[in-house]
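User: Please predict the structure of the protein below. I'd like the answer in structure-token form so I can feed it into my own downstream comparison script.

Assistant: Understood. Taking the following sequence of 251 residues as input:
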Amino acid sequence: MRILRNLLRAQRISRKSFSSNRTQLLTYSQLKLTRQFASKPDRKPGNCDTSKENDDNLPTAINMKYKAFHDEDADVILDVSEEMQKISLEEISKQEIHDPYADINLSHGTTGVYDIEDLVALLEGDKANNIFVAKVPKEYAYVDYIVVVTGKSQKHMNALATFVRKVYKQKRYPTDLIPKIEGQNSKDWIALDLGNIALHIFSLSAREHYDLETLWTVGSQYDDKSNKPEELNIMDKYNAFLADLHPADIA
């Protein structure tokens, strides 16, 4: 009887051991189940690269959490100089081309190359300060309008005069003479004779000193500065300055 009991016990142990091994085999078999995946969407299951089979055919439990790494899938890391150059090129491509003549009427005026409204709009767009316009009496046989503005600096004064002249060249007819910038190197007073308009660009101090607004609105007989004995040379200087205004060339 003892021998029979030992045999039965050995049989039960053998069954438990076989059942345990079978469970381990099933677990390992489940881990060995593989799936194919592609890092690129156009890759088809039947056309996978054999060089990647060992990498792609990972156990399912691992493959669901991690992705196989391939060199061609990696991002290119640039060094500092290459990265800065790339950023600079991107910024340049995003910059819009600036048209200096945008919103400017480039058609020839009706009373001259510039109509007074077009010149005032251009000066306002170029940040000229304290724009003053006076209509000149016809008996003076000079120009139709006097325009006086103040520049923020010598550089700004020159920029105003240069841009007015550039636009003039865009608007003019072939027979219209190109004006000369008078006093281009002056820090206080620059002038252009535009045919029907005389443009005066002053520094702040020079504008206060010469006060052309009073001269052209109330007349020299009522201008206190013109009637002072020590300031009698103001009109002489101004008339001499106007006498030198003339077109520079035709081309």
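That's the full token string. Confidence is low (pLDDT under 50) at residues 21-40.
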